[in-house]
Amino acid sequence: SRLSSHLLIHKGERPHKCPTCSRSFTEKGDLKKHMPIHLEERPFKCPSCSHGFNQKAALKRHMILHQQK
After folding, report:
1. Per CATH, the architecture of 41-69 is what?
2. pLDDT average, residue stretch 29-47
3. What's CA 35's distance to the chain center, in Å?
4. What percent of the chain has pLDDT over 90?
5. Which of 14, 40, 43, 51 has fewest C-beta within 10 Å?
6. Given this model, what pLDDT does residue 62 score?
7. Coil, helix or strand for 35?
8. Torsion over CA of 50, 56, 57 and 61, rounded to 10 degrees?
9. Which pLDDT does position 2 carry in this prediction?
10. Predicted local distance difference test score (pLDDT) of residue 17
11. Regarding the domain delimited by 2-38, which CATH topology (the fold level of the hierarchy) does it fall under?
């Protein structure tokens, strides 16, 4: 349940472990979001410098750097 999952945060338990880098997460969804980091594919390209990212959120964070210049 969502309450059980939430309580893991307070207990410090992270039962969902990445098989590639051993990073762990309290929720399965967070592990699922993490997994593309290990893929070669980088479909989200920065229009300013063509740097590629595997997550849209990472591209958005990167683009802020261009706006600050």
Report:
1. 2-Layer Sandwich (3.30)
2. 90
3. 7
4. 49
5. 40
6. 95
7. helix
8. 20
9. 79
10. 96
11. Double Stranded RNA Binding Domain (3.30.160)
Structure tokens at 38: 């290990």
* Run of H or E including 8: helix 2-11
Domain ranges (residues) in the chain: 2-38, 41-69
**Amino acid found at 58:** A
Q: Residue 31 in contact with residue 37, Cβ under 8 Å?
A: no
Using DSSP's 3-state secondary structure scheme, residue 44 falls into strand
| Total length of the chain | 69
Spatial separation of the C-alpha atoms in residues 43 and 3, rounded to whole Å: 35
CA torsion 57-3-17-44 (nearest 10°) is -10
In angstroms, the CA 41 to CA 36 distance is: 8
* Parallel, antiparallel or unpaired: strands 24-25 and 44-45: unpaired
